[in-house]
Structure formats: C-alpha cells, structure tokens
Amino acid sequence: MDVLFAAGDLEWKxxxxxxxxxxxxxxxxxxxxxxxIVLIGAVTVLLALGILTSQQALDxxxxxxxxxxxxxxxxxxxxxxxxxxxxxxxxxxGRPKTSTEAVARLVVPTTVMSAFVNNTPLxxxxxxxxSDWCKKNRVSPSKLMIPLSYAxxxxxxxxxxxxxxxxxxxxxxxxxxxxLPEAARAGAHYLGxxxxxxxxxxxxxxxxxxLILGSKILPDRQPALSELDDPRQYTIEMMVPQDSPLIGxxxxxxxxxxxxxxxxxxxxxxxxxxPAVSPDETLYGGDxxxxxxxxxxxxxxxxxxxxxxxxxxxxxLSEPRSSRCLTEAVVSDTCPLVGQTIRDGRFRSRxxxxxxxxxxxxxxxxxxxxxxxxxxGDTLLMESSPSFVEExxxxxxxxxxxxxxxxxxxxxxxxxxxLAILVAMVVVVGLGWMSMLKAGLLASALMILTRCCSISxxxxxxxxxxxxxxxxxFALGKALDTTNAAEIIATRMIDLAGEQPWVTLGIVYLITxxxxxxxxxxxxxALMFPFAMATAEKLNVxxxxxxxxxxxxxxxxxxTPIGYQTNLMVYGPGGYRFSDYVKIGVPLDILIMIVTxxxxxxxxxx
Length: 606
Fold this sequence. Notes:
Strand content: 5-15%
Radius of gyration: 28 Å
C-alpha cells in the first residue's frame, strides 16, 4: 500500500481529508448526530488511514484554548454555586417581556465584554448564566445560545485582545515585518490595540442589530419542563428570614411570580393566610411562602437568595449545610414510621435528614410537614448528607433512593468573594499580566481553596462532550493543514481574482471564511496569512487591508458549529441542529463580509 501511494501521497491524503470533513458536515446536519461522536469518529478514520499521526490526533487535548475552556467551567461553577450567577443575571439581563428583548439584553453586554475579554472563556462563563436565566424567564435556550456565541465573536473583532485569532495574525505580521530588510522595516506597520476597531465596531453594530431582529429565525425549542411531565407535585414552605434582601419587594420584583413548573399558592403571615397572592403583594420578614410544583422547580427554590426552608429541622442536621444535597426516597410498606407523623416518628434523629416536602399521588398536602402522617408510597424530598443514598438504598425502609443533581444549597455569603475572584481574573488578563490559561487556573484554584466551589461540583461542571468536540476539531484542522488540502483550494481560488485589488480582497475574505468554517479559526488565519501577503506583493499594494480582512474573516465563522469554538460550546445547551447555524449564520457571514470589504480599504488604503 505504501508503494502504491508513494507518488501521489499528498494528493490522496488531501482528497480523503476533504471527503472526511465533508462527511462530518453532512452528518452534523442530522438532528440525532452528536457533535463529539461525529468529530471523534472522523479523527479516528484519519488516524487509521495514516493521515494523522497519534501525536497530531491527540494534540487538541493539550491545546491551551481547550484547557482554558475546561478550567473556566470550574470558575463559572463557583459563581453559580455561590448564587453569584443569579446576581449577575438579575442586574445585567433583567426580566424581558419578549424573546427579541431577551436577545437584545444579552447581545449588547456580551459584545461589549467580549471586546476586552477573550470570547471563548467569556462564553464558557456565560452559558450557565443564560441557561438559568432562560429557565426563570420561560425563554427557550435555543433563542439565546447562538446569539450569545455570535455576539461574543463580533465583540472579539473590535480589539486586538478580543480573540486569540487577532493575536495570532498580529504575531504573524510582526514576524513578517521583522524579516524585512532594514530599509523596508522602517515603513512597516504594526497593529495596535484599537487598529482593528475601525472595522470591527461597524461590523459588530450591524451584526448585533441583525442578531436582535433576526433571532426570530432561530427555533423555539422549549425545554421539557412541565407539570404534566412529572406527577410528583410537592408542596413546600419557604420562609423569608428577617435579614432577607427580599423584604420590602413585591412578589413580582422578587422574581417569584412566573417561576417555571411551580406556583406560589399562599402566604402564611403570622397565622393569617393570604390565598391567590397578588404580584403586587409586599414581602415581610417571617412570611412563610407555600409553593406547589415539580421537583426540578423545588430545587430552584432552594437556590433563591433570600429564601430558606421553613422547617427548622434543616438547621439541626450534623452535616454542614453547604455540603448537603437534596434527596428523594419512596416510603416502603415496611418503614417503621408508616402511620406516624413525621414529628412523632423523629425522622430527623433517626435518619439524619430533614424532610422538606411530601408528594402523594398528585394531591396537595396542606398540613405542615411535621404533621403529615406517612403512608406507603409517599415520595419524600429531603435535605441530607450526600452519603444518605449509599446508606439507605439497600435498606427496607425506602424504595428508589436517589440524589438530585446540582441541588447543594448555595453559599450566598461567598458570592461577593467568588465575583471578586472572577473580576480579578478578567482584569489581570485584560492588562496583559497573565495569559487566560494561567489566570483561569489560578482563579479556579482560589475558588476551591476558599470553598466557593466544592471539588465534586468542580468535577461535575466540566462539559466533557464539548471539550472532546473542540479537541477533535483541532485534529481535523491539523489534517487539512498538513495534507495541504486547504492550501490547494485557497491557491486556486485566489488565482480567479485577477488584478483587481478590491475584488481580490473580497476573494481573500471569502476563502478565509470558507476555511475557518471547516477548520479552527487560528489555523485558518495562519494558513491564509502568507497568501494574503503574497497577493498584496503581486498586486503591488499595501498588505494592511489584506491583514485586516484575514483577522475579520478568520474570526467571523457563523455558518457551522465547528467554525468557531464558541459555536460548538452552545451546540448542546441550545439543543441545536446543524441547520440552525446555517439559517442565521450564512446571512450573517454575508453581511459581515460586505461590511468588512467595504470599510477596510477606506481605513487602510491599498
């Protein structure tokens, strides 16, 4: 076989690589396709055929960008665990009345922040914020996750530090200029912090308006969170403590009116029952709020700052509250407490767990928790030690003992510290004191050391599927690069431009865009840079318009999920299909291309 392909080895490998990449794009169009499985499968094929070496196939796992994303999952988990995410979402994103307003509230701050914070880690930190915000405001995540990624990409094009692609191109330009003769080097131009801003800002403004108005194109895939999905209707009492920040706020202002999957049935105010609670009702210290809803929504109630379980049993458990979780268990007919009230049976003392609510065949239990007489088949929602499941899953007292994921009570007292660490990380990176990876590693370590995030929560926060997809996409990019597949296509397309600088500029943008949609943005920039410089030299014009176009096109890949890391990161959380990116991404690609090619020569003349 080696002898057979010796003569045309390069061409054979290039053709196979292009075929595999094409197959990836086709497979990703299927709604059932998993991005990580498809991409890893493609890398496996290239590895088996000898097109990629083992080292090249695995290089993506050690890529600094991918590791940075993994580390920042921990940072964002810490902000979430302390309730800091709720604080950010409430003040930055507010309570929109329509999905279009929701997109506008998201796109504007994301674009601004992304100009000064590398867009990949920014999206990694904002994904859980947007997910929680969507859930609380009954907005479909599929309406917001793509705008989040695209807004971060657009913002990243506004400054030199907004995206690693800009830094890659700046480094290539500096290296090129340093290699020039001394006489030519004196007139060479080096890119400053805001040189690309003249083109990036108009593109970001027009692209942002398109995202806001064009968000109607995006699907409205509502998450499966409905009272009909889960027959377990819990009735749970939450209390407004005397030091609660909710005191003095109305039900509407406190965000308790339109909670998904749960409703506020009544308020017990010093023994006086307030049914059919008005959204304008003011909260007072000591109010006991009675909620009815499904288990996922009850977990959300536990995380709301300013509310705590009304039963004092949770404060008498031996386990520190920050280490506990919510657990469900079904009472068996052999449980010794059947026929007794929870209080008389001394449930907390016997099992070291506090019952928060009881579900019984969908009926609402109006008694206080301690007065409920347990029956076989009752489903108990408890706050307990994580070890409760292991201790009781094989005992005859309960059936189906299970832990609810992400149900640890948030440490609101540590939210300011978590936010301070987050801000410090952003500042040191913005000032150039540390790389994003170093700052992220340090921030994640501080989050764990200061107990803003537990080790178990840090492990659970890492999205392995997304990280594997990103690593595999790097390997595909490497295959296109090493086989010269992308170079062959790029060279032939540039030859079509002729001697017209403006036409050539558009062709260079288009080719770079196509390449970045197929491989990684940094690889596309590095691949196209020498062609851009050679084209400018052949036309005897300034290379700067071509350099700027390379920076913009390599970053602005909107039409495929593999075109940019952030697109892959929102693929799962948004519940997207490949076609969703095409519908809104292709028009946006064309729009940004027109703006860039039209504006660049005026700022950087030929």
